[in-house]
Amino acid sequence: MDQLTWTGTAGTVLLPLLQVALLALALALAARLVFVLAGLDAPRLPGPDGTAAAARSPGELASLAVRYSFFAALGAIICMLAAGAVMPSPVEAGILGAMAVRFWPAWAALAATFVLSIRYRRKLGLYGKLFDSTVGMIGFAIVMFWVFTAIFADVIATHDAFAQMSGLKNKPPGSAAPDTAYGWYLLGGDHLARDVFSRMVMGAREVLKIAPAATLFAFMVGITLGLPAGYFGGRLDTVISFLANLVLAFPVILLFYLLVTPEIRNTGIPIVLAAFLFIFPIIFLIVLFNSRYHTNPPKRNLYVGLVLLIGLWAYSGLAFNRDPLGIWSMQPNMLNVFVSVVFVNSPGVFRIVRGLVMDIKARDYVAAGQTRGEGPWYIMLWEILPNARGPLIVDFCLRIGYTTILLGTLGFFGLGVSPDSPDWGSTIDDGRKLLNLFPHPAVTPALALMSLVLGLNLLADGLREESLRD
User: Across-strand partners of 175?
Assistant: First the structure.
C-alpha cells in the first residue's frame, strides 16, 4: 500500500497557492509591524480644502494585505480539504482529505447546529445573540467541533485507540497499515505502535468527559455558598470567605498534585471530599424548586421528590460507588481528578458569586421583591442569580479551558485517569520522550488541546461582548 501524502492529488495545484498566500501573509505582517513602529499606520488626514485624501496610508494598505492574504490562505486550505473529501480513495485524498472525510459526523452536526441556531437566534436569548459576534461564532464552532468529535469518536476513529500493530512503531503520518481494516495510520504511530489519530479523537472524549461536568459541580458549590454569603453577610460571610481564601492560598498545581497522587486514595480523603462536595448540587436544586414553588405544594413536592430520588441515587454511586444498578459509578483515579477539579475551582466561583450578589442586592428590583414579601432564597435564586448570568457564563467557559489545561498537565505528569488513557495530557507525556526524533505523537494532541482552549477563550470573549450589550 502506498504512503499517503498530506494533500494528495489536489495538493499539486492548491499547495503552491497556499505557500504563496502564506508567504504574502508573512510579508504583510512584517510590513504592518514596520509601519506601526514608524508611525505610518494612521489614516491620511483631509487636505486644506476639507476634501478627504485619495490615497491610503502605508499602514492601511498593509492591513488590507494581511486581511486578503489570510483569507486566501484560509480559502486554499478549505479547498484542499473539500477536494480531498470528494476523492475516491485516501491515496488521492491525502492525509488532510482523509481526515476531513473521517470527521463527517462532526461536520454534519456542526452544520445542523449553526443552521438551526442562526434560524432561531432571536428566540434563544444570550445564546442566540452569540451569533451576532464573529469572535463568538468562531469560538463556538471550535468548541462544538470537539464536542461532536467526542460524541461520535467511535465512528470517527480509524482504529482501536489501545491496539498495537506490529511494524508501525513511531511510523510517520500517512504510513500504510496493511493488516488493519482502514489501511493507514493517518497521523502515524506512537512508541507503542498505536494510531495517533485515533488516540487524539478518543482523547477528546476523555477530556470533555471530565472538564465540563467537574466545572459545573464547582459552580453548584460556589453558587450555593456564594449567594447567602453575599446576601446575608455577617459571620456566615466571614467564615466561608476565610475557608475559600485558605484554599486559594495554595498554588493550584501543587494542590492538584497533592490531591490526585495514588497514595492519597489510601487516606480516604477523596471519598470524604466527594461526600461533601457532591451533595451541593442536590441542595441547590432542592432550594431552587422549593423557593420557586413554595406556594404550589403539589408541584414543589413533585420536583423536590424527583431531585431527591435521582440525586441521592447518583450521589451514592458517584461518591461511594454503591449504586445497586451500576449506572452511576466513577473509577478511583477519575474520582481523584474530578474531586480535585471541583475542590480547587469552587473557591474562585464562590468569590465571583459573592461579589456579584453584593453589587446586585442594592438594585431597585431586589428592594421591590423584598417589599412584596418574597423570601430571601427566592430573591437570591430568581432575582439576583439570573441578572448575574452574563459574568458567570463567561467565567464558566474560561474555567473549562483552565480545567482542560490542568487535566493536560496532570496527564503530562502521569497523574491522569489511567496510565494508558488516550487523554491529551497523557499522550503528550508519552510522545515527549522521543520528541526530537518523532514529534508527531506529542504535537498532535498538543495542537488539539491548544485549539480547544483557544475556542473556549474566543467563546468567552463573544459571550462577554454580547452580555455587556444587554
Answer: 185
